[in-house]
Design a protein that fits this description.
Length: 475
């Protein structure tokens, strides 16, 4: 089958999309000028099946079109044909709006601008406090003075409980009741803050700094999402690291669910040791379904599946190791960094096991603009230079040093006393380790955390995935 001229984006993050039913019959096609024609669910579903047959990684396991219910809602139909959904294929998804989907993949969302961790406030595990894990730069939350470590005890004058905590932040305007954590007890401060969500372009560089520690120059980067629009910003961070003589590096990917493969590859290139000796050598490889593999090989040759290292002036160059801070939300393009680097240097993981997503996807939209669905099916698997890709399980990569984000109060990202960063610093220079000696003398204690990854005020941001540009058909 010829490669279609479709808008496609590759993602290796690790998302399990919500299968929400949407009324779509009939389907209305919209051009720039006017509504021109209506299409049935069968038209849309036939298109879905055709594209899944062409690009889906497990195309050989798709049911035949005639054996499917093509009259069903397209949102439901997509999930009904996935290969062992929730077990083998944990990641493919569909959006009723391709425009919204493309914005999401590029870090454009309507948000308050926070991600929170949930903690029980009572032994009965009924009531919950939300502790802010990070605040996006330029967001309404930041402009209203919220920061990592702040505590939310109520939302819209409603108590937060084990039954509503994952949905209380979804309204457009929110009245937040603030709290404190003292002597292992959560309590309300009596202060309230009203904040309204706005559309925001995510700046994925949450924090970057250089720390002088035990005779070393330690670079620290908290990176939120792999966005190609921030390639130059990422290069600038590493340019500063290089100029300051950084010889140890900590990359914080606890809240990074993935993004563009090419941006992930760039970060690999900026970190890897002895880049000059690796230029034009293999970084990673992609595999596709049999039919698509034949077409790519015919059009581009076998080298099209391989990504090689390229020259990068801001590569640090001399690192023997890198510390990566992880959580169960560290997924896809974040895991790709780990897998890319493992053949070339010591990669030390601190935190929780990662999500376990070694596959990526294309975004597929209708080139004829008959409907606005955006498909995000898994279309490829990715391997490192040693053909290794064994982290695609529910346990992902296991940490070398296990930690959980349950020590309160949270310290700011980049603070040497922050739990995860402090562990890395303790390994780099254990004789210099003095708890709370640098930034704060506030006592810390372990709180009763709900065992889920940090939650966003916009559930779209909690999707885990990885994406890239498609191959274009050569005429």
């Amino acid at each position: 089958m010829r490669i279609r001229k479709l808008f496609i984006v590759l993602i290796i993050m690790g998302l399990v999309a919500c299968n929400k039913s949407v009324t779509t019959l009939p389907v209305t096609a919209v051009t720039d000028n006017a509504t021109v024609q209506k299409y049935s669910n069968t038209d849309v579903n036939t298109w879905i099946h055709e594209n899944m047959t062409a690009y889906y990684l497990w195309a050989g396991n798709l049911p035949a079109l005639a054996k499917t219910n093509t009259s069903s809602n397209p949102m439901d139909y997509f999930y009904s044909i996935l290969y062992d959904y929730h077990t083998i294929d944990r990641f493919s998804w569909i959006d009723s709006s391709a425009t919204n989907l493309q914005n999401q993949l590029n870090g454009i969302n309507t948000v308050l601008g926070i991600r929170v961790a949930a903690f029980y406030t009572d032994d009965a595990r009924v009531n919950i406090a939300l502790v802010i894990a990070y605040v996006l730069k330029g967001s309404p939350a930041e402009k209203n003075g919220l920061k990592r470590g702040d505590i939310i005890m109520s939302v819209d004058d409603q108590a937060i409980t084990s039954s509503n905590y994952n949905s209380v932040l979804q309204n457009q305007t929110l009245r937040l009741g603030l709290g404190t954590y003292t002597n292992k007890v959560f309590s309300s401060t009596g202060k309230f803050l009203t904040v309204t969500k706005t559309e925001l372009q995510t700046n994925p560089i949450l924090q970057d700094t250089v720390l002088n520690w035990s005779g070393k120059k330690v670079g620290y980067l908290a990176y939120l999402q792999f966005l190609t629009s921030f390639d130059d910003s990422l290069r600038a961070v590493f340019g500063r690291y290089k100029a300051k003589g950084v010889n140890e590096l900590v990359i914080d990917l606890r809240y990074n669910g993935g993004g563009y493969v090419t941006n992930s590859d760039l970060l690999t290139t900026l970190i890897v040791k002895d880049l000059a000796g690796k230029v034009d050598k293999v970084m990673n490889k992609k595999t596709y379904n049999d039919a698509y593999t034949r077409e790519i090989t015919k059009q581009y040759g076998a080298t099209a599946f391989v990504t090689n290292f390229k020259t990068e002036p801001n590569n640090i160059g001399s690192l023997d190791r890198v510390f990566i801070l992880t959580s169960t939300g560290t997924a896809s393009a974040s895991e790709l960094i780990i897998n890319n680097l493992k053949p070339f240097m010591n990669v030390i993981l601190i935190g929780e096991h990662t999500y376990g997503k070694n596959v990526g996807s294309f975004t597929i939209t209708d080139n004829s603009k008959r409907w606005n669905y955006g498909l995000q099916p898994i279309t490829f698997k990715i391997l490192n230079s040693l053909d290794q890709s064994d982290y695609g399980t529910v346990n992902g990569f296991l940490p070398d040093y296990a930690l959980t984000d349950d020590i309160l109060p949270y310290k700011l990202l980049g603070d040497p006393t922050e739990t995860y960063l402090n562990k890395a610093l303790n390994i780099i220079g254990p004789t210099a380790f003095k708890p709370n000696a640098i930034a704060s003398s506030t006592p810390v204690s372990r709180a009763n955390k709900v065992q889920v990854s940090a939650l966003s005020d916009n559930p779209i941001q909690d999707k885990l995935d990885m994406f890239d540009k498609p191959f274009k058909h050569k005429n």
